[in-house]
Amino acid sequence: MFSQPEKIGFDLPAWLNRFAASYEATTSLSARMRFVILAAARNVQEKTGGPFAAAIFEIETGKLVSLGSNLVSTQGLSILHAEMVAIALAQRVLGTYDLGAVGMPEHELISSVEPCAMCFGAIPWSGVHHVATGALAEDAIAIGFDEGPKPADWIGELESRGIRVSSGLQRESARQVLQDYIEDGGHLYSSREG
Fold first, then answer.
1. Residue 76, number of CB atoms within 10 A of its CB
2. 69 DSSP β-pair partners
3. Whole-number Å distance between alpha carbons of 167 and 133
């Protein structure tokens, strides 16, 4: 007999909302990126997932709407990349699947690392107007992560849809989080383990 759950969900790490509450709204993109990179580092320190974090902010005011961290290995769901978590949380907070709906402030996704193929695919449907990233995909690949088949000109693809992209912001700090994860024995998960 067929059986599957009627509902799925996931738990956020205990530290995440406390960390988010420490954020003070700023119009400085650099400060927002620093906050997201610090969240990625905290995820590594707390051993609550992979070395990635992402957040949704109001662009004009710098207000934090949601903060997500990578939860793949701790929650056992391959879709729980930091960007996916941040987007899902923002959609729940704002009560809409379209973060770019008419009458809403413009929103941005800031991620500690460039989006993988899955997260890249989710960005156009999220409604964000701007994407900012820290470490490059090649930095994640260099430590052993599989970023999937993303278009070579992923920035051009997003910009052709009216989504501005800022890449490589504070790259060295973001790359250090990846390196710390590996040096601390972090788990390099993929669909082809074992």
1. 9
2. 53
3. 5
Q: Which of 83, 108, 114, 147 is catalytic?
A: 83
| 168: region left, alpha or beta (phi > 0 left; psi from -120 to 50 alpha) | left
- pTM (2 d.p.): 0.96
Strands (E), 59-178: 64-69, 107-113, 130-135, 164-166
- Cα separation, 118 vs 104, in Å, equals 26
Look at residue 7 and tell me whether its pLDDT is greater than 50: yes
Topology of domain 14-183, CATH: Cytidine Deaminase; domain 2 (3.40.140)
Confidence of residue 189 (pLDDT cuts 50, 70, 90): confident
Is 114 annotated as catalytic?
A: no
For 190, the token pair is 């993929």
